[in-house]
Amino acid sequence: MNARAIRIIGIDPGLRNVGWGLIEVYGARIAYVACGSIRTTADLSLAERLAQVHRGLAALIEERRPDEAAVEETFVNRDPQSALKLGQARGVALAAPALLGLPVAEYAANVVKKTIVGVGHAEKQQVAMMVKMLLPNCEIASPDAADALAVAITHALHRLARARGAA
Fold first, then answer.
1. C-alpha span between 99 and 112 (Å, rounded)
2. Domain presence at residue 63
3. Residue 142 and residue 126: Cα distance in Å, rounded?
4. What is the per-residue pLDDT across 110-132, written as a single tens digit (0 to 9) for each?
């Protein structure tokens, strides 16, 4: 068992809202710390919105001091232009913690859903409900924050499974 808690930030990337969730892991125990969303200003240019995402994540990481980051891989079935913009926001979500020295893991949405709910094609509401069951003291700020907490929990559980496999 670890001598100290490992703090994990989960990130659900987006251009309008970036969900974030912070948990602490003590051995096999997971505890809620905080969650929220970073919102961008819709009438700004794409570059300025991406800069808002970066500044928001960097400030959050510097303030909350996570040890590791986990980012959800995005799935978009809309038009190519939306997919490209979302991919750019995801790039910022990957780079911000990496630039601050955090190891960054990535998880596909269906892996997160399967880990949290047990089904790879679960609905968002099911994921949020299971997050509340796994973190009974959490105050979920938004659907994006619930998804980010699910990503953080997924990372914690996969991390634990890897550690047990190595032991």
1. 24
2. yes
3. 14
4. 999 999 999 888 888 999 999 99
- What pairs with residue 20 in β-bridges? 11, 36
- Is residue 1 in some structural domain? no
Q: Is residue 125 part of a domain?
A: yes
- The domain tally of the chain equals 1
Active site residue 144: yes
Note the Cα 74 to chain centre separation in Å: 11
Q: Closest Cα partner for 149 from 3, 39, 51, 8?
A: 8
Q: pLDDT tens-digit profile of 71-95?
A: 999 766 678 888 899 999 999 999 9
R_g (Cα) of the chain, nearest Å: 15
Q: What is the pTM of this model?
A: 0.93
Per the annotation, the verdict on 62 as an active-site residue is no
Q: Which one of 12, 24, 68, 147 is the catalytic residue? A: 12
